[in-house]
Each structure stands twice: as C-alpha cells, then as structure tokens.
Amino acid sequence: MLWREELEEVKAIVTREILRAIEENVRPEGLAKASAHLIKGGGKRLRPYLVVEVGRSLGANLDRLLPGAMAVEFIHNFSLIHDDIMDNDQFRRGIRTVHTLWGVPTGILAGDVLYALAFTSLGKLREVGVRASRVQMAYEELSKAVLRLAVGQGLDMTFPKMRKVRISSYIEMIGLKTGALFECSAKLGAIIADGKRRTISKMGVFGRYIGIAFQIIDDILGIFGDERVTGKPVGSDIREGKKTILVLYTLKKAEKSEKKLLLRTLGKRDARRSEISKAISVIERSGAKEYAMGVARKYALKAVAALDALPDGPHKEHLKGLAEFIIEREF
Amino acid sequence: MLWREELEEVKAIVTREILRAIEENVRPEGLAKASAHLIKGGGKRLRPYLVVEVGRSLGANLDRLLPGAMAVEFIHNFSLIHDDIMDNDQFRRGIRTVHTLWGVPTGILAGDVLYALAFTSLGKLREVGVRASRVQMAYEELSKAVLRLAVGQGLDMTFPKMRKVRISSYIEMIGLKTGALFECSAKLGAIIADGKRRTISKMGVFGRYIGIAFQIIDDILGIFGDERVTGKPVGSDIREGKKTILVLYTLKKAEKSEKKLLLRTLGKRDARRSEISKAISVIERSGAKEYAMGVARKYALKAVAALDALPDGPHKEHLKGLAEFIIEREF
Known about the structure:
Two copies of one chain form a homodimer. By secondary structure, chain A is mainly alpha-helical. Chain A has one domain (2-328): Farnesyl Diphosphate Synthase. Chain A has helices spanning 2-25, 29-40, 46-57, 62-87, 98-102, 104-123, 132-158, 167-192, 197-224, 227-230, 236-239, 245-253, 256-265, 273-286, 288-306, 314-328, and strands at 91-92, 95-96. Chain A has a two-stranded antiparallel sheet with strand order 1-2. Chains A and B meet through helix 4, helix 6 and helix 7 of A and helix 4, helix 6 and helix 7 of B.
C-alpha cells in the first residue's frame, strides 16, 4: 500500500499550503473561514495526487509540482461549494455545506475566491523555475478545464427536466463535469515536468478516463453507499431527479411497473425515506449497479493502458494503484 | 469627441467577439443565453477600452489587444451576475438581472462560465504573437485582480453590519472591488504592447485611480442619478444598507436628528419610496455629494498625472477624455 502513504504525504502538504494561501490572501475573516471550510472538512486530494505522481514519474520534484497540485484542488473545492448551492445540498464530507452555514452570498463569494486562488497559485510556477511557455500552457489547460466543468454542470442541471437522456450523453456529461479536471490534473503534471507533447496528451487520456470511472462510482455510492462512510446523504440524487447511469439503465431495462415506481419518486424533493428505499430497490433489481460497475471498470482499464507513455517505476505503479482504488473505494 | 467614436468602435468589436465566444463554447443553450444576457443588455465597455487605448498608445494594434480586452469584460460581467445574486438586485442596465430570469443556480453557473471564458480568452494571446513571458504576466495580473475583486466584494458585504466604517476603509474597499479590475485593464494594455516595467506600473496607478473615481461616481448616481438613465433603481443602495462614501460622510458630519433619520431607513429592505426620499434629502443636506465629487475629482487628477509614462499622441489624449467622462457622466 505504498501509494497510499504517498497520497497521505501529498494530502498533508497540499492541505497545509492551501490553508496558508487562504489565510494570507483572503479577507474579511468570515470569508476566509467560509473558503477554508470544506478543505478543512476532508477530501481525498486525488487530483493533486495525480499532478504529483505524473510529474514525479517524469522526474519533477514536489516543490515544482505543488503550485499545480494546489490549483486543481482549489478548482475542485470552488466547484463543490457552487454545486452545493445549485443543488441545495445540506451535507458534504459529513459536515454542513458552506451556504447552509454562511448563507448563499458568502457561499458564492467563497467559491469565487477559491477559483481565483487556483489561478494565482499557477503564478508561483515561475518562482520554482518552470519556463514561461510551460506556465502559459498550464494556465491554458486549467482555464479550458474550468470551462468544460461548468458546461458539464450545466448539462447535468438540464437532465432532470429532459424526458429521455441517452447513456452516451451521461458519459459525455461526466466527462466534462468530472473528467475535465482529472484530465487537466494529469496533464499539468506532465506539463510542469517538461513532458513531451505526446506524453501530455496520453496523460490527458489517463486522467479523463479515471475521472469518468470516478464519477460512475460516485453515482453508485450516492445510491448504494453507506452515508456514514461517504458523508453524503443517500437518496439526495434521487430527490434531485439526477439522471445518473443507474437511473438511465433502470429506465431503459426495467419492466413498466418497475419504471413507474422509480419515476414516482425521482425528482420528488420531499420524498420520504420509505419512498427512497423503494426506488433504490427498483434500481437494485434492474441490475444497474453491476452494469455501472462494468462500465467504470472498462474506463479504468482504458486509463491504465494510457500509462504506457510513462517510464516504468514506482510512480507509474502508484497511478495503477490509484486507478484500482477509484473502482474499489467505498467513500 | 473623437475618443467616444473610438470607444464605440472598441465596444462593437469586443461585444461581437464576446458573444461569438459564448456561442462557440457554451452549452446547453439556456446557459449560453443566461451568460450572454447582461452583455447583450448594454454596458459601457470602459475596461476593454482601457486595455486598447493603453496598448495602442504603446504601438500595439487591436488584434493583438483584443483577447485582453475581452478578458476584462468577461470578468466584469461575471462579477455583475454574482453580485446581483448576492445583493438580490432585480434590475441592471435597465433590464432584469440574470438570476431573476433564469434562477439562482443558472445565475451562479453563468457567472462561472464568463469567469472561465476570461482566462481562455487570454490563451488567444499566443496566437496573435504575444511572447509566452508576457502571456504569463497577463494571466498573473488577471488572476490577482479577480482575487482582489472578490476580497473587495467581501469587505463591501461586511460593511452594512459594522457600526463604524472609516472613509479610508471605504476607499480601500472600492480600490479592490472596482479599482483592481481597472488597474488590471490598463496594465494588460501595457503588458501586451511589450511596455517597460515602469510603464506597466504607472498604468496600474492610472487604472486604479480612475477605478476609484468611477466607483465614487457610481455611488453618487445610485442615490442622485436618474434611474431611467442609469438603469438601476434609486435607493437600492440605501435599502441594502450599503456604506457608501455619501452615507459615511453624512453619518460623520450631519446633526444627531438628521443621522437618526438616515439610520432609520438605511438597511431597511422594505423601505417605502417616501422613506427613501427622506433619507436622500438628509444625505443631500449634509453636503455629501459635493464632498464625494471632490474626492472623485482628486483621484481622477492623480490618475491623469500617471499618464506621463505614455508617449504623447491621440491615445493619451483619449485616456484623458475617459478620465473626464468618468467624472462628468450621468449613467
């Protein structure tokens, strides 16, 4: 389990530096606290880990990679804060969401602050010796990723109102909403480590595909996970009418009466726990979980295949470990 | 009035290119429409004009300056959309605000989209021949500006809850909330035009000071302006309890009974029009408007002094015209 030890190391340093950047740059105090809240509350730091492992496997050291690692985590947390407002989610990582504690205005602004800190963080790349042309590439990748992330979130928001959503549209949507930032993370590692164009592009493929696998597993855990472990209330996706791969598969494959049972609860904001349980049983009986796991595994395998662009060594093995973890995880 | 003709030229091109970028990059359609709404609704495009005029006076052409000009206008409009949600403002530029038409979730996301487009726009600087080191500087300036803009907005939000706010704190706050992006705009012009460090820094001073003057005039127009001309309801600042320079001066200089009259209405969300009128009369009688105009003029003069760093010529004269307009404007 060596890769997990390395993850813990990266996690500790990235978390410390992110909190320091917030403390040094954000006023007033309330806004700084709101901005730091989710980061203090936990998180796996998989995106920074991707930056670091890809970069290390290409010979760069942590000091050099740190600004990139921080940037993607800043973007991730900005998007969580804004998404929680949009979905009106009450809990995340087992703690109250930012807007439920500080109100919507401060929530929006805290997200905007983390968004800005992501880009100011990339500015530090010059100080650690990265060439201007590479810094400029890093900015470009990050900004493209944020745009795609927002478009993905926009599509996600329209799905509940659409009568028919194809599974391929769902995959495209999560490729944007989640895949784009994983893709950017892996690419940033290669960009900062002065990787070749082909390596950068292959790392993009790796990141994108594990991002897609990650989101599928996330959607499975949102319905079949243990909320004491995931930190997110089971059933919130169903109450919000989210068209996840599980729901789409069930609506495609289940019998008419079963479909009706699911549609009755899907999108019902005030659904009771017993209704949620029934909806989950319908999804379970359809075989959607097994189907979704299969799709996630397929993407993880395609991701691992793209690792051939990296030199053999411990960091490449760690990235394989990460791909496995993403599939096996329970939180 | 030659400078106004040039402003119209820049405005038309920047608006067209911004709308094109939204159309090409944003999905689904509803999100694209929400993102374009305020830009279609009007706006003076003073920030892009700053980029262009500073850049032109240093020898750069419009093609080269356009990505920078678009970037600052994208940031400006992102901040308007988010601010309107935070303040729950219903009207802007004489039309309904984004969140009142599309809802808060789409409003937040539309802001995030424009935010991202600002940074992807800077990525185009490479394509028009700007050196990587300058592109990287442009990214750095823009990201610092957005951070300061958010901090300024955070301070602005805390002022209504504070018992005592100094006029110097107000000036500091607007220097961040409004000054930072004007500063960045003028600097971007110089950065893209390959200006010297000293020129870039002087242009920062110019932009920052006209930004401060601009915001003071904005606050005056918010109370004494004609809402058919400004497009913003008179009195909304008073209802929101905003501690503008006018309010701060009145609270400092007016007699006790007058102060009481103002404080009774300040921050009263459901204040009637007659109450607002009384509060405005108190502010008028205190001499706050003349005081604030004087402060705005002082900053505009300091700004114009910084223009000595630019070579003599029509564009320098246009920038002087802009500084004058900012003080004299009625919208």
